[in-house]
Amino acid sequence: MSSAGQIVGLDYSSMVLASLEEPRPDELRWYAVRTRSRHEKIASQQLQTRGIETYLPVVTQTHRWSDRKKQVEVPLFSGYTFVRLAYARNEQRIQVLQTHGVAGFVGVQRAGVPIPDSQIEDIRTLLFNKVDLKAHSFLKVGQRVRVRGGALDGVQGILVSHSGERSLVITLEPIERSLSIRVEGYEVVPA
């Protein structure tokens, strides 16, 4: 090896740099858009009329009133819809932001953060195959959580994952001791 990045006369530095580059400015990517309360469908329809590809995942729920029941389509993620666009193109981004019902892009300081195509496709697959699902609060390993329902209702601890199994670690800080319980099958929510 004669110099950094060269092996037997081949220069790999350009290949490594190419894989680390930002997506091309004209590349279409998915972005989450925050909407005003109960404006997901309206915002999606208006974005489509402006020529912007959208995806609003919906699920059918049974709503009960005192006199009747009705099947209602509701957004899977209330307050959000997804758009596919080239974010670097100002005209498309501005069109999204000027749409009635849109509050802004989801990301740091409202700068859109791209969502991998595979994640959108996974949601589409689940909904197409009518898999029984419901939205769940986002939980991170290391986050303080509480068990809701069942024999462990109200128990709090730190969510951990080991070998693919989720556990709840309960710590007695004054004596510096902890114990762990498996929480598979229990509903776990942020504390």
Characteristic key phrases:
five-stranded antiparallel sheet; 20% helix; alpha+beta; 4 helices
CA radius of gyration is 23 Å
Estimate the strand proportion: 35-45%
Helical percentage: 10-25%
Please identify the oligomeric state.
single chain
Main beta-sheet annotation? 5 strands, antiparallel
Please write the string of helix (H) and strand (E) elements: EEHEHEEEEHEEHEEEEE
Account of the protein in words:
- The protein is 20% helix and 37% strand.
- The chain is an alpha+beta fold.
- The strands form four sheets. Strands 3, 4, 7, 8 and 9 form a five-stranded antiparallel beta sheet that branches. Strands 13-12-11-10-14 form a five-stranded antiparallel beta sheet, with no helix packed on it. Strands 1-2 form a two-stranded antiparallel sheet.
Summarize the structure.
This protein is of the alpha+beta class and 191 residues long.
